[in-house]
Fold each of these.
Amino acid sequence: MVARVWPDSLFRRLAIILFAGLLAAHVLSFGLVALNVFGPSNESSDDYFMRYIATAVAILDRVKPEERPAWLDRLGRPTYRYVIRDGGEIETAPPKRRQENLARLRAMVGEGHDAKTVFYLDPLNRRRLGWLLHLKDGTPLMLEFTARRTVSSPWLPTALAVQLCLLAFFTWVAVKLATQPLARLERAANSLGSDLRREPLPEDGPKEVARAAAAFNAMQRRIAEQAVERIQILAGISRRLQTPITRMRLRADFLGDRDVREKLQGDLQEMQTLVKEGLTLARGRDEIGKQRCQTDLHALIDSIVCDYSDAGKPLRFSGERGVTILTHPQGLRRILINLIDNGLKFGEDVEVAIDTQPSNRIAITVSDRGPGIPDEHLKSVFLPFYRVEASRNRETGGTGLGLAIAQQLVSALRGTLTLANRDGGGLEARLEFSR
Ligand SMILES: Nc1ncnc2c1ncn2[C@@H]1O[C@H](COP(=O)(O)OP(=O)(O)OP(=O)(O)O)[C@@H](O)[C@H]1O
Ligand SMILES: [Mg+2]
C-alpha cells in the first residue's frame, strides 16, 4: 500500500516531503495563532475584561438615571451589552472557573454591587448565561453576552489559499532545482554511449552540481582517451598483420599440394576478414557519429539491391520513393549489407522493405525464409563472435561480428535494431530511426 502511494520519482518524493513539512509547520503556527485568538481566554485577558466592566459600572453609578440608556450603548461592545433589567434564574452552583471570575468581578467592581451569574432567554429564546449586578441606587444591570469572540477577517481564507499556492510554487522551484542536474547527468550519460566526444557538461551552478559535472567530464575524457588508445592498438595490429598475411597468401600459391594450398588460402582469407571486421567494430561508433547527411533511402537501398543482383543474388525490395533520412550513408549501407548477408547465408527469399508508419519513424526490415534464431539466442547474437550453432556456421563461414557491428552502427545513428522470428519461419531484422 505504502509502495503504491509513495511515488518512484525523486522529483515527486522530494516535492511531497518538502510540501508536507512546510504545510505541517504552517498549520501548526496558524493553529497556535488561532488558539490564541479564538481559544479559551486566559487570566490576563479576563482581568482586562473585568476592568472594563468595573469602569462601565462606575460610570453608570455616577450618571443620572435618565442619562443611563444613552451610556449603555456607548459602553457595550460587539460581543456583550448592558441592559437595565432584572435577570432570570440565578446560577446556584457555578463551575470553578466561573466562580473565580465572579470573585474577580466582585473584587474589581467593589462592594455593594451583588454580582451573580444568571440564566436569561435571548431574543431567539435561547438560554444564555449573563451577569447580574446592581448599581449603587439599586438599579439592576444585566451584562448579556451577544456572541463568541470572532476575528472578522473576510480575507483570511484568501490569504490562506495564497499562502498555500506560494508554498506549492516554491516547493516546485526547489525540487526542480535539486533534480534538474540529475536529469542533465542522466542525459549526458545516455548520450555518452553513442558519442564519446560529446560537449562536456557545463561546470557551473551550485558547488555540489559543479563538482559532479566536473567528475563526469573527467570520466568522459578518460573513457574517450582509453577508447582512442584501444582503437590505435587494434588498428596498429591489424595493419601490421595485413602484410604477413598477404605474404603468406603469396607463398601459399606456390604450395604443390592443392588440397593443403586451398585450406591454407581459406584460413588466411578468414584471418584477413577477421582483422578487417575487428577494426571496423573498434572504429564504427567513432567515425559515424558526426558525418551525417540527408539521404534518399529508396535510392540507397536500390543501389545495394542492384549490387546483389549483379552478383547473382536477387533480392526483393519494396518501399515508398522519395523518403529522406538524416544518416551516415556508408554506415547504413554497412548495416544493411550485414543483415542481407545473413539472410542470404542462413536463409533464402530475402526481402528488404521500407515502412514509413508512423510518420515520425522510419523502419527498414530485412526478412528471410530461413531457420530463424531460437528465442533464447535472439539477444546473444549481437555479442561479438557469438554464433548460434557451430555446425550451421561451418558451412557459411564468417566471423560472428556482423550483427555486433550492425548493432553498434545503429546505436551510433541513434536507431534501434531488433530481431524476431517470423510466422511461417525465417527471421525479420527491423531497423528503426526517427526522422
Ligand atoms: N537471418 C538469419 N537466420 C538465421 N540465423 C541467423 C541469421 N542472422 C544471424 N544468424 C545467427 O546469428 C549469428 C550471428 O550473426 P553475425 O552476423 O553476427 O555473424 P556471422 O554471420 O556468423 O558472421 P559475419 O557476419 O561476421 O560474417 C550467426 O552465426 C547465425 O547463427
Ligand atoms: Mg553475418
Note: The chain has four domains: 2-40+153-178, 43-145, 208-284, 291-434.
Amino acid sequence: MPEPATTSPVTVRVVPLAAGECLNLAALTMRGAAWRVQAYPAGFALLLHPSGPVLLDTGYGPQVPRLMRRWPGVLYGLITPVRLAAGGTAAAQLARMRLDVRSINTVIVSHLHADHVGDLRAFPAARFVLDGAAYPPLRGLRGLRAVRRAFLPELLPPDFESRCDPLPFASAPAWLAPFAEAADVFADGSVWAVRVPGHAPGMVALLVREAAAGEDGSEWTLLAADAAWNVRALREGGEVHPLARIAFFDVEQERRSRGQLRDWLARHPRARVIVSHDLPETRPVSL
Ligand SMILES: [Zn+2]
C-alpha cells in the first residue's frame, strides 16, 4: 500500500528589526517603573515567506522627523520625541541585506500609528494588508484630531486606499482559542492574524510558524504589535500607568485584547513573543 502523502507545514523565518526609536517616560509604559526617560525601539519585522519577503510594519521613516518640525506634528514630537539615524529606515536596512524595496509585495500593517507606517511610501510595489476596521475611524482626520490618534496622514502614499487589502477573517482553528476568528494571511497556515483592537482601531497581532514541530507552541512566534510595551507585561498581565490609557482608542477593547493574547500564551507557553517596543525574545524560551 502506498504511504499516505505527508506535507510538511509551511514555515516562515521572522527577522525582528527596528527603524528608529521614541523616547517616553518609563513610568507611563509600566506601572511601578521609574519616572525617567527611556528609549523604545520602533520595531517592525521582516518575514521570509517562501513566496517572497514580507514586512510587518515599517517603523519610522524619513518623513516623520520632518513632520515633527512643523505644526501639528510638532506636538506629536513633544509627547514622544523620535530619533532616527541616517541609514536607519526599513528601506535602508533592507538594502543592506540586498533586498530591493520593489521586492516587497506585501506590507502587513498592524495598525496605523506613525511609528508603524512611517516608511510605507518607500515600498512602491507593496500591497497593504490590514484589518478593515483600522482605517475608517482615521480616514479624513487632519491636524490636531489626527495627531491625537498618533496618526500622521502625510505618511500614507497618495494611492494608499487603492493598495489596501482587508485581512480575510474567518472562523479560527481550535488551537487559536480564545480567538474565535483569524485570517490565514497566505492561505497556507504559516501566518495567522488575530484582532487585538483597543490600543488603536483594527490593530492585529500575528502568529507565525517558524519551525515544523512542537505542540506546546514552540514553533510559533507571536508578533503582538503594541498590545503591551514589553514582553513581560504581556506574559504576566502588567498594566500601564493610568495616564497612558488616555492614548488608547478604546480602553475596554484594549484590556480584552491583551487578556486574549495572555490567555493564548498561557496555553502555548513556549511560543516566542515579540512586541514592537521591546527587545525580541530569543529561542529557546526559558520558563
Ligand atoms: Zn501604536
Note: Helices lie at 26-29, 63-67, 73-79, 90-96, 114-117, 143-147, 231-236, 251-267.
